[in-house]
Write a structure and sequence with these properties.
Main location: other
InterPro entries: Iontro_rcpt_C, SBP_3_CS, Solute-binding_3/MltF_N
Order of helices and strands: HHEEEEHEHEHEEEHEHEHEHH
Oligomer: single chain
Subcellular location: Cell envelope
GO cellular component, one term: membrane
Family: Belongs to the bacterial solute-binding protein 3 family.
Number of domains: 2
Largest sheet: 9 strands, mixed
Strand content: 25-35%
Shape: globular
Number of strands: 12
CATH class of the largest domain: Alpha Beta
C-alpha cells in the first residue's frame, strides 16, 4: 500500500512538472514572439526618417528647371526624381524648400531627410554629408548677353562683373577671373541682368542657362566649352547608411528600367546623366 501511494505521488509530481514545463515553454514562446528583433524593426527606424513613412527632401525652390514653384507647388527635375525615389522605397514624398546657403545646416539639424536640389559633390561638402551616386552630370558654363561680342572666351572675363548664385561653386570659380563678383539668390535673377547690361557675364549650370533661353526667351548665348564638369548627388546625414543605400538602389533601378531617362527627356530633351 505504501509503495502504491508513493508511486501515485511520484506520478502526480511528474505530471505537475510536465505541466509547468509546458506552460513555461508556451510562455517563453510568446515572449520570444513578442520580443523585438533586428528583422522586425520598422523600415523607418532603419532609415532614421524625420517623419514615419515619409521621405522629406529639400531644395532651394529657386533653381528652374530643376526645382521651382508653379501654381504654389514645387516641381522640376529634382522634385520628380525625389518623388520617384520615395515611391520606390515605399515612402510618401515630401519636397520642401530651404535657403540654399543654409541647406546643409538644415539637413544636419534634422529639418528634412535628404537634399535633392542639384548639389555638386565636393570634398568640402562630403566632409559634412554623405552623397549618393551622381544623378546627373552638368558643368559650369559662361553666359553673356546675345549682343555681347567682347567676351568670347574665359580669358575675356578678367576684371569683368560676373553674376553667380550665392554660396555656390560658381562663385568660387568666378573669383579666379575677377574680384567683381555679384551674388544672387537665384541663377535666373542673375541671367536676367545680362541683357540690360547690369552684368558682363554669368557663370551658372549650363542647363539652367539653356532653359532661360528656351523657356523664358532671355536673350543670351554661351561662351566656350564647360569650365568644368559637375557631378550632382543627393545628400543625407553622415552615418545614415541604410537611407543612402536604398536611395542608390532606387536610382539604379530607375536608370535601368528607363524611368530616369523619361523624366530627363521631359525637362531637357536629353539624358543629362550622360
Amino acid at each position: 500500500m505504501l509503495k502504491k501511494t508513493w508511486g501515485m505521488l511520484a506520478m502526480v509530481g511528474l505530471l505537475a512538472m510536465l505541466l509547468l514545463a509546458g506552460c513555461s515553454s508556451s510562455q517563453g514562446a510568446k515572449e520570444t514572439a513578442n520580443k523585438p528583433t533586428e528583422d522586425s524593426k520598422t523600415q523607418e527606424e532603419k532609415l532614421k526618417l524625420i517623419e514615419e513613412g515619409t521621405l522629406s527632401f529639400a531644395s532651394s525652390g529657386l533653381y528652374k528647371p530643376f526645382n521651382f514653384k508653379k501654381d504654389g507647388q514645387l516641381t522640376g527635375f529634382d522634385v520628380e526624381i525625389g518623388n520617384e525615389i520615395a515611391k520606390r522605397m515605399g515612402l510618401k514624398p515630401k519636397p520642401v524648400t530651404n535657403p540654399w546657403e543654409t541647406i546643409i545646416q538644415g539637413l544636419k539639424g534634422n529639418k528634412y531627410d535628404a537634399i535633392i536640389g542639384s548639389m555638386s559633390i565636393t570634398p568640402e561638402r562630403a566632409a559634412q554629408v554623405d552623397f549618393t551616386d551622381p544623378y546627373y552630370i552638368s558643368g559650369a558654363q559662361i553666359f553673356v548677353s546675345e549682343s555681347n561680342n567682347t567676351i568670347t572666351s574665359k580669358e575675356d572675363l578678367k576684371d569683368k562683373t560676373i553674376g553667380v548664385v550665392q554660396s555656390s561653386t560658381f562663385k568660387d570659380l568666378a573669383t579666379k577671373y575677377t574680384s567683381k563678383v555679384k551674388s544672387f539668390p537665384s541663377d535666373v535673377y542673375a541671367l536676367q541682368d545680362l541683357p540690360p547690361g547690369r552684368l558682363d557675364a554669368v557663370i551658372t549650370d549650363k542647363m539652367v542657362g539653356i532653359n532661360a533661353i528656351n523657356e523664358q526667351n532671355v536673350k543670351l548665348k554661351t561662351v566656350g566649352e564647360l569650365l568644368y564638369e559637375d557631378k550632382i548627388g543627393m545628400a543625407v546625414n553622415k552615418g545614415n547608411t541604410e537611407l543612402l543605400n536604398q536611395m542608390n538602389k532606387a536610382l539604379a533601378d530607375m536608370i535601368q528600367d528607363g524611368t530616369y531617362e523619361k523624366i530627363s527627356m521631359k525637362w531637357f530633351n536629353r539624358n543629362i546623366l550622360k
